[in-house]
Amino acid sequence: MFSFHIPMKRTLTIVVLFLTSMLLFTGCTLPWQHSNSTVNSPKPTTKQLLAALHKNFRNVSAFHVTMQVNNPGKATPDRIQLLNATGDVVMPDKVKAQATVVLSGQSVTVNLISVANNQFITDPITGQWRIIKGILDPRTLTNPDTGIASLIGKVQNVSSPADDAVNGVPCWRLTGQLNAKYLAFFTGGVPSGTMLQTSAGIGKSDMLPYQLKVTGQAAAGDMTNTSRTFLISNYNENISITPPQI
Fold this sequence. Notes:
Elements: H1 5-26, H2 36-39, H3 46-57, E1 62-70, E2 81-90, E3 94-103, E4 106-115, E5 118-122, E6 129-133, H4 139-142, E7 162-166, E8 169-179, H5 184-187, E9 195-203, E10 209-215, E11 227-233
Antiparallel strand pairs: 1-2, 1-11, 2-3, 3-4, 4-5, 5-6, 7-8, 8-9, 9-10, 10-11
């Protein structure tokens, strides 16, 4: 058994931050928009591609995202391990998600809703909603100038765009390295100087990411081959997120 109050606060923080932070870091895309004229346009420079990503992110109203962890390492009794998550984000301050986590050695499913600075999470045993306030204000993450999107400027040794595809969509592939210290505020931190191998698939038609993959030791317990893959879809659809009935 485990205490609900403290582990659930940590679970909420980890799930929401991984789900929104890393995905807001990638930006977004409209998967139905990929005209042949754009796909066949000249290859952009890395600087042009990243500038367009940052600019277009400001027009996003909502999106769906999934995250999968591979090679997560061994879970310990005092550590919460996030295995996968799926959810919706409505800009600027609403998140609804479901995640599979390991708590006290047991794999459980939790649901969460975050609206402004109010968070709600289900008890993994009873399934009942609980209120947890003050853990996260999603607006601190979604701000394109000061939030997670600004992390894109901290990626080092970014490659030139290369031809690729994500789920059949023509993309430019970028690779680079991100110092794990920039993610410490939601992963708990790892030794200074730890570099994460980062790869993004950015649509040729809209110059916005369809996929982000981060490999390396981003959190305690991770291995060098631990990877987190994020897939983004259903952008700017009409999504309604409201607080649950308590």
